[in-house]
Structures are given as structure tokens and as C-alpha cells.
Amino acid sequence: RTTGEYQDKDAFTQQVLGGQMGFRQGRFKMAINGVQYHFSENILKKKEPYNLYAMEGRNWANYSVDYGFSWKNLYLFGEVAKDIRGNFAIEQGLLASIHPKIDFSFVYRNISPAYRAIQSNAFTENPEAQNENGIYAGISFRPKPGWRMDAYIDVYKFPWVSFSADMPS
Fold this sequence. Notes:
Layout lengths: L2 H6 L5 E12 L2 E16 L13 E15 L2 E10 L4 E12 L2 E10 L20 E10 L7 E9 L12
Antiparallel strand pairs: 1-2, 2-3, 3-4, 4-5, 5-6, 6-7, 7-8
């Protein structure tokens, strides 16, 4: 490491507080989630169009409700999340075994260009859960033991500019 990197060590810290309260009954589960962040310094971003919705300041928070429900050969799941500014992210999905050799999957996502989350883990093309709308559908076929064929389509768009694109794409 460089001398400058050693000098900057521990210059920026964050405190994180979070929790989850869940409920499960039979084939249904649901949880309420929350996480709050406090940073030792203000987060500041360059005044660029792609940073219009960037996090700023010393505090951030995200809250969500997620669920899962199984019934026969179907599994429904999803999450609705909100950040400290009131911006939403939604993901809903379905997994179905429609035949002993055929499985189907479907995921819908609508993540506001303004939504921001730290350390998110969403089903998206974008590495971060932000600025994305899309529909994914997939099918898995197992014609005989040891063989599997998968096909999928993922149609998505980024409704706002990004670091690498100066218009919605």
C-alpha cells in the first residue's frame, strides 16, 4: 500500500444498526427489515447528471417488507423497499414446477432511479439496486438424468442516466 493510503486508514467510518422481525406460519413467511447508517464524514458527490439521486450527508436508512409463500408446486416471493428519502424498489417473483421435468421462473422488478441502498443484493443487471425496471422469465428442462437445458430472457431498462450512459438506456 502507499503512504497516502496508510495515512487515510480509518479516516472514514460508518456505524450500522439494523434488524429484522419475522413471522412464519405454515407455508407463509414475512419479515420487516430495517438498517440505518451513520457516517463519520459527509458523503459528497460531483455535480453530474448521473449523481442527481446520489446519497449525500452523514445518515442513510433503508426499510423493507419481504415475503414468501409456497403452495403445491408454486413459490411466490417478493420485497418492497423504501429508502430514507421515500424512494421505492419492488421485486416480485414466481417459481413453478409445472412438470416433474420442467421448472419456470419469473421476476418483475421496478427500482426507482432515485432509490439507493448500501450493500444491496437484488436480482438486477445493474450491480446496485437502483435505476432499473425489468422482467425476467426462465425455463429449465431436464429431459433425462444428468441432462438439463435452460433458457431465459431478461428485458430491462435503465430509466435514468448512469456513469457510463448519458441518457436512459
